[in-house]
Structures are given as structure tokens and as C-alpha cells.
């Protein structure tokens, strides 16, 4: 199972945050890091995750999915989020 960072920007018309967040939560292992930034764990590839999430997007929306590997550093997140990141990356 790989860990992915997912970011998106839903541009004005027809924003469908509920659809995107429901799909991200459906992966089971997830951390809503901040705003429109999530970390998820999945057996799927980045392209498969992108294709699943793009069903919620308008033509002008932006989405980025990448494998999260190696070193990470952060500040200002709750203990719960910090613990999740440490245990899952």
C-alpha cells in the first residue's frame, strides 16, 4: 500500500466538495491535512486515484496526486494529525 498526497482547487462554478471528500474518505486510510490537501493510503496508482476523483471535477478544476515517500517535515498541525503522518508515511 502506498501513501499519496492529494491536492485540489475547485474553481468557482459547480464546486463539488462533498463528492471529492466522500471519495477521499472512501480510501479508508486518510488524513485531511489542511484545506484542500489530503494524505491517503491506497493500493491504487496515482493515475487511478486521479481518475476516480476527476468524476467530481469541472473542466476548470485542478487536481494533483503524487506518491509521498521519504522525508517529511511540518509545523502547526494537531497531535492527532502529526501522529497519523508519522505512522503512515
Order of helices and strands: EHEEHEH
Proportion of strand residues: 25-35%
Return residue spans where pLDDT drops below 50 for at least 5 consecutive residues: none
* Largest sheet composition: 4 strands, antiparallel
The total count of helices amounts to 3
Q: Distance between the terminal alpha carbons, to the nearest Å?
A: 11 Å
Work out the number of β strands: 4
**Rg, Cα atoms, Å:** 13 Å
The helix content, as a percent range, equals 25-40%
Structural class: alpha+beta
**Mean pLDDT over the residues:** 90
Q: Overall 3D geometry?
A: globular
User: Strand arrangement, largest sheet?
Assistant: 2-3-1-4
What's the short version?
The chain is an alpha+beta fold.
Can you put this structure into words, describing what you see?
The protein has 89 residues and is an alpha+beta fold. It has helices at 17-25, 46-53, 79-88; strands spanning 2-9, 29-34, 37-42, 62-67. It has a four-stranded antiparallel β-sheet, sandwiched between helices. The mean pLDDT is 90.
Notable traits:
89 residues, alpha+beta, 4-stranded antiparallel sheet, 3 helices, 4 strands
Topology:
Blueprint: E1 2-9, H1 17-25, E2 29-34, E3 37-42, H2 46-53, E4 62-67, H3 79-88
Antiparallel strand pairs: 1-3, 1-4, 2-3
Amino acid at each position: 500500500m502506498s501513501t499519496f498526497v492529494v491536492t485540489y482547487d475547485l474553481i468557482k462554478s459547480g464546486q463539488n466538495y462533498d463528492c471529492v471528500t466522500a471519495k477521499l474518505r472512501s480510501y479508508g486510510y486518510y488524513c485531511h491535512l489542511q484545506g484542500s490537501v489530503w494524505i491517503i493510503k491506497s493500493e491504487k496508482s496515482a493515475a487511478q486515484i486521479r481518475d476516480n476523483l476527476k468524476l467530481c471535477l469541472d473542466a476548470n478544476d485542478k487536481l494533483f496526486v503524487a506518491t509521498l515517500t521519504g522525508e517529511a517535515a511540518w509545523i502547526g498541525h494537531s497531535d492527532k494529525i502529526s501522529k497519523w503522518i508519522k505512522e503512515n508515511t
